[in-house]
Amino acid sequence: MASPMMLARTALRPQTRRMVNSTQWVRRLGRRFRPEPEPQPNKSNLALRILTGVLAGGLVAGAAMAAYPMLTGGTKKEPMKVELIFQEPRKRSMSAEESREQLSPQHVQVKHSWEHPGVYAWGSNVGKVVAPDSNELVIKTPRRISYFDDQVLRDLKLDRNFGAAIDEKGNLVQWGVGFDKDHYTPTVTLKGKDLVKLDISRDRIIGLSHNGEVYSIPVAAADQRAGQKETTASPSSLWSSQAPVNYRALTPKNLRWGEKIVDVRSGLEHCLMLTSNGRVFSAASSSEDFPSKGQLGVPGLTWTNRPAGPYDQPHEVTGLSGSKIKEIAAGDYHSLALDTEGRVFAFGDNSFGQLGFENDVEHPYVDSPRPVPINKLYHGTNLRPKVTYIAAGGPNSFFTVDARAFQGQLGGDGSSAQGQIVPAKDLGRINVETWACGEGIHGTLGNGKWTHVSVCPTKVKALSNLYEFDEATNQVVPIRLSRMSIGSNHACAVMDNFTCVDSPLNGNAKSDTDTNFGADVLWWGGNEHYQLGTGKRNNVNTPSYIAPLDTPARRGPGHAHENRLVQREGESNRFQLTPRKTVKLDGGKGRAVSVEQRAECGRDVSAVYSAA
Predict the structure, then answer these.
(1) Four-point Cα dihedral 193, 199, 205, 210, nearest 10
(2) Is the per-residue pLDDT at 535 higher than 60?
(3) In terms of pLDDT, which residue wins out, 457 or 40?
(4) What's the whole-number mean pLDDT along residues 64-87?
(5) Facing residues of 157 across strands?
(6) Bridge-partner residues for 522, per DSSP?
(7) Of the candidates 381, 386, 383, which has an alpha carbon nearest to the alpha carbon of residue 400?
(8) How far apart are CA 411 and CA 425, in angstroms?
(9) What is the pLDDT of residues 432-461, one digit of tens each?
């Protein structure tokens, strides 16, 4: 029997052996599956592989280049050549005058208007008015009318169907299909009346003579030849002669001693006459329709209850008898009057709000003068307004206002009230602003909007609060409007900015940089017939400049004079009107004459002419 010690040793042996075997098994397993170290690449083999790859790539690229011409048909494109263009030096001036021409395009405009005066026109040409020698329906940019080359006119008015002008001798010149369908070129019609101003209605011309006589002449040549003609006696002869043209006298019969007509304005059916005493008369100016929309300013006057006598007899606008009127204006069917105190009176058609106050749909006509509430435009401000200029045309009206700063606040009725304190330096400061009312669907209001009907006048910002430095007085002064011309749906404004026409053409100026320049003129409104002169057809609702008249693109048939106004690259030239100056025509070799340029807007047409 085994002893306890032996049993203990026996029990321990298997355990010890298992432990040993387990340990040895783990060790053998570790030696059996240990990963072998990766062989290090041979550096010489690596370099050989890289060299081989480079050589193979080069061979492939060379083969592709060699095969490209065969794949593309054998054509080989030459590399693009870069040509360097250097700016050519400007022509060296041979004289001081050439130096001024190169320095200032505006100087060239002024010089050309003096050397070769005439008429430029553009817009609708359906009536052979803008370009009588052309069959084009529209003239997109200003073009000279060759008949008026080197002529100075006293006045000019245009319609799309006929044109009328007064030459330097005071004779009436007419042209267009509306004048004569067969002979529509410019023709002198009424002579010997010494006309100084004119305006046009739908079918008649209203002319004002130097001695204050007013004449109503038919537009159509056939109507001029028909009917009873006036018999006139020559002051140097005992014999009397019959006038070759049928016309009617519109001079009021009840003028006072020394009083005469000094201005005439016409709408489509009516005309206004202003006397030297500040009185206003109105009359029918068309033989087609009697003015019945209140534009005559005579309450209740219609065709049926008109007084006995000629249908176009003048009537005094008694509603203005308490004011001394200094300016008048007429739209298609409405009238404006400005008195010496800066108040505006309006009467006639107000369908589009062209009278300056809100339209009454049930009563769109105002048949007696009514004050335009300009003070309401400045209600609550420290500015006191005074109207200094008026203009009208089509269904639109324009007012230029001098608004002077004062200590207080303006009420709606024009009275003063206690308001904010105005600095002493601002007291008396004048803000010159332009306001417009009427139809604006074509952009004619110039306020940047397309408004169909005006509720009240709106400010034309592009023509308001403009200033420039006056070297003579050494101070900043406002820029006012010199004049406006309003067509049926477009307009232009001539600015009264600082101009210079003192640089002579004979080289006796102070320096080579002493140049001439004119007044800025801006255009806006309807442009369906290219009447704005931009060369494009889109309407414009803000006043804008146009290019100079004498540019290569604007030389049309019959342009007899050489164009010397060349726009250099990078320069943006604008058209300017030449102010009045006494010069010698034909480059300083002709007769001396006082001349200026004027702009005119008609029905779908525009013009610029040299005015005496």
Answers:
(1) -10
(2) yes
(3) 457
(4) 63
(5) 164
(6) 493
(7) 386
(8) 23
(9) 999 999 999 999 999 999 999 999 999 999
Q: pLDDT tens digits, residue range 501-533?
A: 887 655 455 566 788 899 999 999 999 999 999
- The pLDDT value recorded for residue 434 is 98
Helix or strand run (H / E) with residue 33: none
Partners of 232 in the beta sheet? 241
The greatest distance separating any two alpha carbons of the chain, rounded to the nearest whole angstrom, comes to: 193
Which tokens is 199 given?
Answer: 């305006």
When the pLDDT of each residue in the chain is averaged and rounded to a whole number, the result is 83
Q: Find the helix packing angle between 105-115 and 96-103, rounded to 10°.
A: 120
Contacts of 137 (CB under 8 A, 6+ apart): 124, 125, 126
* Residue 478 and residue 434 in contact, taking contact as beta carbons nearer than 8 Å: no
Map residue 433 onto helix, strand or coil: strand
Mean pLDDT of 186-197: 96
CA dihedral 439, 443, 445, 446 (to 10 degrees): 180
Tokens of 140: 């997109």
One-letter amino acid for residue 139 of the chain:
I
Q: Among residues 177, 170, 163, 70, which one has the least CA distance to residue 120?
A: 163
Place of tokens 């004079």: 561
Closest CA to 180 of 137, 230, 246, 129: 129
* Residues forming beta bridges with residue 495, ordered by sequence position: 481
Identify the residue with better confidence: 29 or 87.
Answer: 87
Helix (H), strand (E) at residue 264: strand 261-266
The three state secondary structure string of 141-206 is EEEECHHHCCCCECEEEECCCCEEEECCCCCEEEECCCCCCCCCCCEECCCCCCEEEEEECCCEEE
Look up residue 42 and give its amino acid.
N
pTM of the model: 0.79
The helix (H) or strand (E) run that includes residue 500 is none
The answer to which of 65-79, 126-140, 359-373, 544-558 has the lowest mean pLDDT is: 65-79
How many whole angstroms separate alpha carbon 186 and alpha carbon 179?
9
Place of tokens 């009447």: 531
How much is the CA Rg of the chain, to the nearest whole Å?
A: 43
Question: Which position has the token pair 């008949």?
Answer: 147
Q: Is 576 helix (H, G, I), strand (E, B) or coil?
A: strand
What's the CA gap between 182 and 395, in Å, rounded? 33
Query: Rounded to whole angstroms, how far apart are CA atoms 142 and 449?
Result: 27
Which tops the pLDDT comparison, 428 or 319?
319
Spatial distance between the Cα atoms of 267 and 285, rounded to a whole number of angstroms = 8
Higher pLDDT, 21 or 181: 181
How does strand 119-124 pair with strand 605-611? antiparallel
User: What share of the chain has pLDDT > 90, as a percent?
Assistant: 61
**Which residue in 195, 220, 191 sits closest to 206, CA to CA?**
195
